[in-house]
Amino acid sequence: MKSKLIIYFLLLVLGFSACEKPANVDLPSAEPKPVVFAFLSPEENEIKVSVTLSNPIFNNKPQSNQFEVIKDALVQLEDNTGKKINLTFDIFTDAYLANQTQMQILPGEKYKVLVSFRQYAVFGETTVPANAIPFTKVEINQEGRDNFNNIKFGLYARWQDPANEVNYYRTLIESKYVWNDADTLYSSIQYDKVLSEPSNDGKEMLLRYNVLFNDGALDQKNYLDVYLLHTDYNYYEYHKRRLSYVGEDIFVEPLPMYSNIKGGGLGVVGSYRKVRSTVEVLR
Predict the structure, then answer these.
(1) Which terminus of the chain has a lower count of CB atoms within 10 Å, N or C?
(2) What is the distance between the alpha carbons of residues 80 and 271, in angstroms, rounded to a whole number?
(3) Is the backbone of residue 184 left (phi > 0), alpha (psi -120 to 50) or beta?
(4) Same-domain pairing of 143 and 89
């Protein structure tokens, strides 16, 4: 009886394998799309718009991590009165630039970025946050040493969240130091986070950051620049997703990137207000 079951099982497996056929699946085709990025701020001297062309996975072009930079587009900035200015392509930044002497970015005002080239015509809009929110207090305190005898510092930055409205923030800390009293200033971003805290509406907000210095490093001049960006929703939503990217971990669930570009394009037009506070790190 047992041998009959084995023979029956083998015949069943062979039967299934005989039913296998090559699968010819037509993969979906996708056309390249314009990709536009612009982040406007009254606190920046320059207006900058980058324009590239996407490289979809399912097309006939070789795959590359680099998008094609578009150098011959018509790129315009329009304010809420209908006035427009043309931006000029800059070969050093691979972006379209204008100065705020050509059009001033004003708090609380709405702006539209329009891009056209070849068969494409896309645009994105943003309303600049009305207020730059100042820090109420920024301080750095020495808080002992770690197990390797590095000096521990705690940086505390506070600000007041405006009440009865949803606010979006980006906080950054940039480390700067001057080596051997030279005039060269070295810098690197140490902290970068976006946040929106509806549960803390109208309350004091706190950024806390811990940093280590060895004794030799403190023989030089060290500074921490603390930035508080009060952003619009577009800026916040894009950077929240971008900063959530953690590399090549195959178990991380994909997160669709945010876009507010209309007309068949991708990318973001956003805006922000910016304040900065600098503290010197002293022994």
Answers:
(1) N
(2) 15
(3) beta
(4) no
Enter the tokens of residue 119. 């068969």
CA distances from 186 to 223, 224, 249 (A): 10, 12, 31
Its domain, for residue 141, covers 135-247+273-281
Within-domain flag for 252? no
Cβ count near 274 (within 10 Å): 17
Is the same domain home to 112 and 145? no
pLDDT band at 225 (very low <50, low <70, confident <90, very high): very high
Q: What is the pLDDT of residues 122-172, one digit of tens each?
A: 999 999 999 999 999 999 999 999 999 999 999 999 999 999 999 999 999
Closest CA to 109 of 82, 75, 85, 86: 82
pLDDT at 209: 93
pTM over 0.85: no
* Three state DSSP letters for 1-42: CHHHHHHHHHHHHHHHHHCCCCCCCCCCCCCCCEEEEEEECC
Task: Answer yes or no: is 17 within a domain.
Answer: no
d(CA 124, CA 182): 44
Average pLDDT over residues 76-104: 97
Do 74 and 99 reside in the same domain of the chain? yes
Which of 109, 127, 145 is the last residue before a domain boundary? 127
Q: Is the dihedral of CA 141, 279, 244, 197 positive or negative?
A: positive
Q: What is the CATH number of the domain that holds 236?
A: 2.60.40.10
